UniProtKB/TrEMBL annotation:
It comes from the Eukaryota. PANTHER family: ACYL-COA SYNTHETASE, ACYL-COA SYNTHETASE FAMILY MEMBER 3. This is AMP-binding enzyme. InterPro entries: AMP-dep_synth/lig_dom, ANL_N_sf. Residues 34-334 form the AMP-dependent synthetase/ligase domain. It comes from Lyophyllum shimeji (Hon-shimeji). Belongs to the ATP-dependent AMP-binding enzyme family. One of its GO terms (biological process) is fatty acid metabolic process. One of its GO terms (molecular function) is medium-chain fatty acid-CoA ligase activity.
């Protein structure tokens, strides 16, 4: 069955409830006053039907057939993006979604469309100057107010769809072989997202409508699929002015718009926690949440302890573009944070693998790391499309976990966080463990850091905390203090894992990051700072 069958019923069922609160903040003097306009389920359904009728007529004239792929390039900043995306699906087409991150990759659009046999391309007028090279029929996306009202009866029924059929195509925020990877989402995947993944991740609540912030761009899978996973139980999405919204906007969402649940990347959450340490208002608002879930990377250990001490209802979740939300910590057991369990109803597995820390450690089994791969079998509801899977029987996500007690696991980094390092004789090095220790022991000195050294000696790159930003010009004292604090931890490491004075201080924000999550890209650091690394190694 087509995944939108249940979605359309939910939109009609909750027609009077607010579905989307559009950010309409205005400038007052030198400050921005946050404000929102509420859009109901019923209004969204009407906009959706009208846009679907428009695109069915327009794309039919361009010769696009039912169930063919249509590229859609949105900014990811507007309510209308969510209308046109689902309207294309309602009209019987398969949207291939491009967002603002593609602006620097415009020439790749033809290639990405070709891979998925795209037949047409529609775009926000913002990109008018960027689409001249597109080699399929194109059309600009009209304003919603200019689209004629069309009775739903003229749309006809949804097309027939099997579980494994593709419903929509997104792209990863990172690149593979120099280009974003397209990730088709099937009807089975989207139904699992709305019926299993999302409901299983949220444990707080008092029966009132759940209101969430949006997680970044409406052109990326997390927020673009919000209509699908919020509508079954009548939940609401509040648009933020920017992904890492500030404390004033957070308070306004709580007080004016009923924000009571948050989903944040860890780095965004840390910014709010920093304010909450000195602001009783922000701390109380955080405590009032039903649930705050963070993802993307580990929370700073000091922040993780503090939120538990302060009674802030926090849970960590594990999710990927390919698999949606898969694991969550227990909200009622904060002392177990950041250990996570599988969401109930998930048919996924953690498969034991063994990583030896070095060739020397082969004689010392006690030093081996017992880690687990996250495996999604092909019959699981959230198993990626066959074109994305990396095993004949399913998909390994590439993330590693350590079991803390039966059925509970902590994230131990990407498989590529375990790199071979050293002087000639190479051994495995857990770069994430070193980075976590730097953040723990040097939290007042270091804003962020990354360890590199693939097939080379380990080097630590550091972005200093704001109070030490000037250390970029004269880093000797900062380096010495970092190395002093790392001394006890480094003494426990094998020779090939030790920094041994190789610390590079760089300006805050200068390390290359992923667009959406803001995670530092290890390989890109090695490429961008190749000259400095060569000097160190020589």
């Amino acid at each position: 069955m087509h995944f939108m069958h249940d979605l359309l019923e939910s939109l009609a069922k909750h027609s009077n409830r607010p579905l989307f609160k559009r950010y309409t903040g205005s400038i007052a003097g030198s400050t921005t006053v946050p404000s929102w306009t509420s859009i109901s389920y019923g209004t969204y359904l009407n906009d959706l039907n009208n846009a679907a009728a428009y695109w069915k007529c327009h794309l039919d004239r361009l010769g696009v057939q039912e169930n063919e792929v249509v590229g859609i390039w949105v900014t990811g900043l507007h309510y209308a993006d969510l209308v046109h995306l689902y309207a294309l699906i309602r009209a019987g087409f398969i949207p291939q979604v491009f967002n603002l991150a593609m602006l620097s990759k415009g020439p790749m659009i033809n290639e990405l469309l070709h891979v998925r046999a795209g037949k047409a391309f529609i775009y926000d007028k913002y990109y008018a100057a960027e689409v001249q090279h597109v080699r399929v029929p194109t059309a600009v996306i009209p304003e919603l107010s200019s689209i004629p009202v069309t009775p739903p009866s003229q749309l006809g029924s949804l097309p027939q769809a099997q579980d494994e059929d593709v419903a929509v195509i997104f792209h990863t925020t990172g690149t593979t072989s120099g280009r974003p990877k397209s990730v088709p989402q099937t009807h089975k995947w989207l139904k699992c997202q709305s019926q299993v993944n999302w409901p299983g991740a949220w444990q707080g609540g008092d029966g009132s409508q759940k209101c969430f912030n949006n997680l970044g761009s409406f052109g990326s899978v997390g927020s673009a699929t919000a209509i699908n996973y919020l509508s079954p139980t009548g939940q609401c999405l509040i648009q933020t002015s920017k992904p890492d919204f500030d404390a004033d906007e957070f308070l306004a969402m709580v007080r004016k718009e009923g924000l009571n649940n948050m989903l944040l990347f860890a780095s965004w959450f840390s910014k709010l926690l920093k304010v909450a340490r000195t602001s009783p208002e922000v701390l109380e608002a955080l405590r009032s949440m039903q649930q705050i879930s963070y993802t993307g990377e580990a929370l700073n250990p000091d922040d993780a302890r503090w939120v538990v001490e302060q009674g802030i209802p926090v849970a960590v979740i594990y999710a990927t573009t390919e698999t949606a939300i898969c694991m969550v910590s227990d909200l009622k057991d904060p002392g177990n944070l950041p250990s996570m369990r599988l969401i109930e109803g998930m048919n996924c597995k953690l498969l034991l693998r063994r990583i030896s820390a070095s060739s020397e450690a082969a004689e010392d089994p006690g030093h081996d790391e017992h880690l687990f791969d996250f495996f999604v079998p092909e019959d699981a509801g959230n198993c990626p499309h066959s074109s994305v899977r990396n095993r004949p029987d399913g998909h390994i996500t590439g993330d590693l976990f350590e079991e803390t007690r039966p059925g509970y696991y902590i994230f131990r980094g990407r498989s590529d966080d375990w790199i071979r390092t050293g002087h000639g004789r190479l051994g495995f090095c857990d770069t994430k463990a070193i980075e976590d220790n730097v953040k723990l022991t040097c939290s007042d000195l270091v804003q962020n850091c990354v360890v590199v050294g693939n097939a080379k000696p380990v080097v630590l790159f550091v972005e200093p905390a704001s109070a030490f930003a000037e250390s970029v010009r004269n880093p000797i004292e900062l380096k010495a203090e970092i190395l002093k604090r790392l001394g006890p931890f480094e003494a426990s490491l094998y020779a090939h894992e030790r920094i041994e004075g190789r610390v590079v201080i760089v300006p805050p924000g200068s390390l290359p990051r992923t667009k959406e999550k803001g995670n530092i890209r290890r390989k890109a650091v090695e490429e961008d700072f190749a000259g400095i690394l060569e000097e160190i190694y020589s």
